[in-house]
Design a protein that fits this description.
This is Arc/MetJ family transcription regulator. The chain is of the alpha/beta class. The chain has a single domain, classed as Conserved hypothetical protein from pyrococcus furiosus pfu- 392566-001, ParB domain. 25% of the residues lie in helices and 29% in strands. It is built from four helices and six strands, in the order βαββαββαβα. A six-stranded mixed beta sheet has the order 1-3-5-4-6-2. A hairpin with a 2-residue loop joins β4 and β5.
């Protein structure tokens, strides 16, 4: 299994981060087998969207919600890493609980 689980949707509340906000988070390595996807399909339209990490951020976007790591954006990067037999992905990780406390 490549991912911990293949999900369909975001179980966490909206965090409100823009592309620029994500850029402020330092990237770190995340194991693919610890990630839960928020998409079960890689759509070309989404991949080529202006706000996608395909064009902008070099790192995937992951949300830490109740101890689970959800791959919000960067499924294409995660699949590329898996195809290259790399067990880790460089990602920006948002601690949703800590972010919620700061913005409250």
């Amino acid at each position: 299994m490549i991912f911990k689980r293949v999900g369909d949707g975001r179980p966490y509340p909206e965090h409100g981060l823009s592309s620029g906000d994500w850029a402020a988070l330092p990237p770190r390595q995340v194991r693919l087998d610890e990630l839960v996807t928020t998409k079960d399909t890689l759509w070309l339209g989404t991949l080529l969207d202006e706000d996608s990490t395909f064009y902008g951020d070099l790192f995937a976007h992951v949300v830490d919600w109740h101890g689970e790591l959800y791959l919000e954006d960067g499924l294409h990067r995660a699949l590329r890493a898996a195809l290259q037999q790399r067990p880790v992905l460089h990602a920006r990780v948002l601690d949703h609980a800590a972010h919620g406390k700061r913005s409250a």
